[in-house]
Amino acid sequence: MLNLDLHNTFFQLFMIFIVYSMIGWLWESFFCSFKAKHFVYRGFLLGPYCPVYGFGVLSVLLLVPKEYGTLLNLYFNIVVIVTIVEYVTSFLLEKLFSMELWDYKEVPLNIHGRVAVPVSIFWGVGCLFLIKVIHPEIEKLIGFLNAETNGWLPLILFVLFGLDALTTFIFTMTTKKEVEHLVDTSDSENAVIKEYRLKHLFINAEESLSRQSILSHLKTKKPHLKHRNLQRIVKNYPNFKLKK
Prior knowledge:
two-stranded antiparallel sheet, 8 helices, 3% strand
């Protein structure tokens, strides 16, 4: 689906990724804020982007053949691709960070709670509209921005995104270890209670005497970005869990 004459470099592909990651962040933040009736800053990273959207759209554009046939055939191709991307993303988040940011176990026809047929059908419709209506305009916008910045904008965004990903990875891993150490206070404690403590960490911690030690520990430290970022993730993802 991509015009390789126009998008044949890494940075051009990265621009497609980052633009749709930002569009995904806007959609997620708006939709979740509307449901929660207060502003919800979505995204695993610090910046205003949700990479799963960027990877999903880029995968569709790269993998769907130019000669896709009918719109129905294109639609089914899209559904398969976005389902695989969402499943792999969920799997990697759990294996690399022991985190679960969404859970479709209550949705019919789900696979391990990572993906679900109704959700994939919805994403398929969205991506079909995107490819046929939105993407041609996005291509023009990317070309305009590249020309106006003499090709510097993709490089700047790539550096910023790379720094964000690296710092988020470091903060998440160090904070997760700190949390596990604080929570794992007793070998005899019920595993369900431990998971409950982790899931609700930093949310109304002062209301639970069992977590006073955690709250006291955090108060003794200067406010740190790693704690604030994990706090944001926990608050804005209702299904958040630390699996370990």
